[in-house]
Amino acid sequence: MLKSLIAALALLAASHTWSAGFLEHEVYFSEADIQAQVDKNGPLQKSYGNGTIVVALRDAPRIRLGEPTGQVSIAARLHIALLGQPPVPVDVVGTAGLRYDDRNKAFFLDQPVARSVTSAALAREAEPLVLQAVSQLMGSYFRSQPVHVLREDGSEQERAARWLLRSIRIEPGRVAAILSPV
Questions:
Q1: What percentage of the chain carries pLDDT values higher than 70?
Q2: In b/e form, how buried is each residue of 8-45, taking b as 16+ CB within 10 angstroms?
């Protein structure tokens, strides 16, 4: 009877400890780690509106974590061709969230949106069409390309994160992965 009571008290104390967050642990992934993966993802080209607009991402976008607060900022140079014209360089700035896909054990940018496009060669009336096309390209690119993968053969923290990850938080310059057994 005494052993059962002690076991019940220990279980109750452990559940309160877990629910209070005492057993939580945070693992961090740096902006440099994420940028290195984005650099590996390679170029992309998409055509929209039966060839009305062709958008090409030749070089990897630049990623900044925590700017704006809790989000990822994306800066890229695209080459855009309208109606069969020669491509013109366009600088794009966008934002995204971050999501974790447990099945793939990978992080992906979530709902990336182009916020602005800048080009000396782009007509002002074309900007809304270009913003829409660039947002679609970013969504397509980041939906299929992880920005960080938790590897089975990675560090001890990375292996633990594969099984205990409960939530993530974007901070300036890094991602905090919150690990918890419950």
A1: 85
A2: eeeeeeeeeeeeeeeeeeebebebeebbebbeebeebe
Fold of 23-179: Bactericidal permeability-increasing protein; domain 1 (3.15.10)
- Give the residue-averaged pLDDT of 101-119: 90
Strand intervals (E) in 24-146: 25-30, 44-48, 53-57, 62-65, 72-82, 88-101, 106-118
Q: Are 158 and 151 in contact (CB under 8 A)?
A: yes
For the chain, what are the domain ranges?
Answer: 23-179
In degrees, to the nearest 5, what angle opens at C-alpha 164 toward C-alphas 158 and 170? 70
What phi, psi does 143 have (nearest 5°)?
-70, -35
d(CA 90, CA 139): 17
For 84, other C-beta atoms within 10 Å of its C-beta total 8
**H or E element at residue 94:** strand 88-101
The pTM assigned to this predicted structure is: 0.76
